[in-house]
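User: Hi! I'm working on a homework problem where we have to compare a predicted structure to a textbook description. Could you give me the structure for the chain below?
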Amino acid sequence: MTLATRFALRELGLTIEVKRPRAVRSIAVVLCGVALSATASDPPIERFIEATSPDDRIARSAMAQIAAAWKDGYAAMFVDMARLMRRLPPRVSQLPEIPFRIDDDPSAQRDDSAATLFERENSGSPIRRRLVGFLERQTHHSFGGDLNRWREWMWTLPYDPHPEYAVFKGLVYAQLDPRFRNFFPAGVPATIRLDEIDWGGVRVNGIPPLRNPRVLPASAATYLGNSNVVFGLLVNGEARAYPKRILAWHEMATDRLGGVELTIVYCTLCGTVIPFESRAGGRAFLFGTSGLLYRSNKLMFDEETKSLWSTFEGVPVVGPLVGTGVALVSRPTVTTTWKEWRLEHPDTTVLSLETGYERDYAEGAAYRDYFSTDRLMFSVSKTDARLRNKAEVLVMRLTDRTQPGLVVPVAIDTQLLRKHPVFAFSAAHDRFVVVTTPGGANRVYRTDAELAEQRSGPTIVDTTGRTWQVTETSLSLRGSPGVEAPRLSAQRAFWFGWYAQFPQTILIK
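Assistant: Happy to help. Predicted structure tokens:
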């Protein structure tokens, strides 16, 4: 039976109707007397959507008008639409919570072989092939149905989108979830390319954040094995462990620790956990998972303004908060084993398995196929072959001592850090040391002290014979109260994910 969904877009004066038997077949737009703000040289966005019409006459007319004014910046609009146009296997019709399925399904293992791409192209709808064929004629490139190739080509071009591209993206993505429209109002300010924002395969908060999760004392966490991976956090003397096996299914937890409201963000695709304070600019924010990605890194959003935020930087990148100067403060965390964290913090609490959700919280169950290969699930505009895509690096953004406004991104290969438990380096006109435990926890401190290469338990001796105590907050000099080297916020990440965001990064390996 044909499904029909109508969205009244009062702010645009448009009515959208989507008709699809088990899949998106077309998107039809009807003007209601309100003009869009595209320039005279840019076709109105309804022409682009009419290119998906099942009526070939309407589609040909629309594409003729687009071709007459063509610029390569329009390619993103065709890629966005083509991605939705796909036939469904019959079994999908039995899953009403997933209205249709598109390519790059994150639950499936990617295979970029030529045969798979050919099959993917030929399993698409006729409308998808029409859109791709038009792209090939206009750009003189022959990437066929390989939408990732089209994206990679687009990203090599200067960013010159249709002036209403944000509105268009909101209209198209609203077919997946009407709430996506909230992120792309007319004239929305942005510091990133909107054509690099991609759908991650879920609706808004489709990966449900944990809100004030239940916790247990360490002695009661019998479900955890000694070697299980946890993300350890200490705030104002209160310690808590967030097991990877739980957080990987939720990718976000809003929590209160040491009297501080926190948003702990985990991007499984990039392998990064960052705890942020939830207050910034004098106001509290409630964050959620947008369901969108930028360079394979999740974009979170705040419920208050519907701005999209970078989860690496903790700053708004699309929406009303862009340009306001608001930024989140990150807290230091470590990736380590449950045994090591528990020994270092015997009074720690840890998340309970009683999350309110039914998930397979076994160690390694979430994203097992993704973590087991070096292949990517989503395209990024830049990669670097100096390390494997998913090689783990310790990453940080350092403020230059001589230029406070200059931020220097740094990545250190964790294999190097395992070989050198006390590793000193210089960057941003400053000196730092990384202390690595047998369990793999990395802690970064700013210090000029010349420390020995080896550590003895929680202490390190420097070249003058002085002893330094290693703590979660600082390196403190024994016998000299107040003499401390402060700890900096640093996280683990996959090399590809960090490099895609910060290609100017300094790599130490």
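For your comparison, note the following. The radius of gyration is 25 Å. The chain is about 20% helix and 30% strand. Good luck with the assignment!
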